[in-house]
Amino acid sequence: MKPFAWIAAAAALAFGTAAPTFAQRQSAAGADGNPNERHVLEVGGELVTLSDFQHVYGKNNRDSVYTVEALDDYMELFVNFKLKVLEAEALGMDTVSAFKKELAGYRTQLARPYLVDGALLDALVEEAFERKGMEVRASHILVSVDENASAADTLRAWNRIQGLRTRVENGEDFETVARSKSGSDDPSVTSNGGDLGWFTAFQMVYPFECAAFNTPEGELSEVVRTRFGYHILQVTGKRKARGEVQVAHIMVRMPKDAPQDQVANAEGRIQEVKRLLLSGESFESLAMKYSEDPSTANKGGLLPWFGTGKMVEEFENAAFELKEAGDLAGPVRTDYGFHLIKLVEKKVLPTLEESRRELSKKVRRDSRAEITKTSFVNKLKKEYGAEVSERRVEALKLAAAKVDSLFYKGHPLEGVRKSELGRTLFSVAGEPRTVEDFVTWANAGKIRDLNRPADVMVVQEVDRYLEEELLAYEDTQLEGKHNDFRLLMEEYHDGILLFELTDQKVWSRAVSDSAGLADFHSRNRELFMWPERLDAGIHTCEDAKIAKKVRKELRKTGDVEGLRRELIAERPLALRNEFGKFEDGENAWADRAFEALRNGELVPDKNGLLVLETTEGGDQVILVHVREHMQPTPKTLDECRGAAIASYQDHLEKEWIMELKRKYPHKINREALYSLVR
User: Fold this and answer.
1) C-alpha–C-alpha distance, residues 627 and 623, integer Å
2) Where in the chain is the domain with CATH 3.10.50.40?
3) CB atoms closer than 10 angstroms to residue 587
4) Per the confidence metrics, is the pTM higher than 0.85?
5) 536, 582 Cβ separation under 8 angstroms
6) pLDDT tens across 85-102, in order?
7) 1-90+483-530+634-678 — its CATH code?
8) What are the two backbone dihedrals, phi and then psi, of residue 102, each rounded to the nearest 5 degrees?
9) pLDDT in tens, 405-454
10) What's the CA gap between 233 and 222, in Å, rounded?
11) Fold of 134-240
């Protein structure tokens, strides 16, 4: 599949500098079914409404006002585009499987934003922005229980977490309770006592994040359920977010529980490195020589950008306390050893508008995206009257309980009574989905976790089947519900066709048609001319003595490069040579020769040499030796192949447009078009 930018590029090339969206093929009723809507264009029997053209124009001329001239210019481009698309359709290019597959791929991607609760998504983005501005510190106790655990196992876990919470409420120390027998199931509790350190939005699963941000500092949260089990949190701190920082560090490695002599040795080494640093040696060179962090030493100690919760706390705090680029901290001791830290750069928190796009992506990838999806599905249930039959669900539960393999791929529906198969499980917009439809869907390999209790599995999978069917049906309604989506799909439909056909007729043809290109070049030589040029050597001499030697060599052999090679061993910068055919404005020294020639100030010396001598201050002397003053001449095809191909493409494009205009008549309703000016 071509990337989106490729399709946009095809449209841009077709429109010159514009990159429009493209109007939907219209019946006389127009896009919204209004038979009175005015049309601005009829081309090849297709009608384009004023509103669709206005959408196209507005999207590509956001800073332009409506004028007759601007509308005429844009309409010309638009007509040319429509003619090409009509030709592609006439050739059947929109019916081939490759085109359909490619367009379907784009549609899947473009439809995604329309299949979630957009208002809720915006609210979650704004909530995430507010939370990104804060950091929370919390400890937690976890009682593990699987998401699909039986009711009995879930109840046992619930009673246990409630008991632990009661102990804390009654005055027991949170860390003591977390570490106690039958306390927290989090394996890290043995090392941190439940303390998770500082964190912000997107660093914890969403329900846990909500509990942390919604619980006041110093208080105990209510019980919260995540996919890991049940949690209680004690919020121990809240502060303003510190943004992100980039630092470089030099590390002397030392084990966490190293004996005192080893600690002293490591500290002595880091202090010696610090002494070298303060004496003027560069941080980067010292990092390469002495840092024992193999992942950063060869980069001068440079670490990636990080925010809260990404580094060990001692290192992180020291890094964020640095104020200005180049400031130093340390030695700082962590569990990994001793560090010297240099601030490279800090980033302040972006505004909502600056971060909205990135936050939207994160929300869509995060577990909270399920909230927007669930909300959207619930709205669809109401809109399309999709209510699951509890009687049918109970019958499926009984069948699943009797036959363990009910949901295995290819199962012959054993366990479900034949009288049940034709029953309606639910309907979507009046279209029934039967029990047999569901079991067939389930047996098609849709279900992966077969270790859940039968009754739980039935309820969950019926809900998932309903969700899939609702979203699939809604997907078929997008063009009718959302005019912007309809136009967007038309843009990609036409853009793909445009790219393929223009490539065949213009772009690739101009490259591959060598005979046609050569003929076009020979008939249009005036388009590919060399301007006035100087064939010259520019010799930068260290002093007047070297300049004298250059003049002598020019008169004698002309081999100034030989002279440079003789001098280079002892005096590398004694002579520098540059040779070429210079256009006016291409080289400052050649430009001075151009000016001298035009003013009659540069004439051959007694040896017939045209040499301009000039200086730029100091002892340095520049000699411009003009070997030939070249008048404008046509370029050979090899000398201008790129430009010739581009011009040949323009030529082919114009001829093709003329042919299409003869083939497909078009009519512009200028009265309707110019109504946009008023």
Assistant:
1) 12
2) 134-240, 244-347
3) 18
4) no
5) yes
6) 999 999 999 999 999 999
7) 1.10.4030
8) -65, -45
9) 556 555 555 667 888 889 999 999 999 999 999 988 887 766 766 677 77
10) 8
11) Chitinase A; domain 3 (3.10.50)
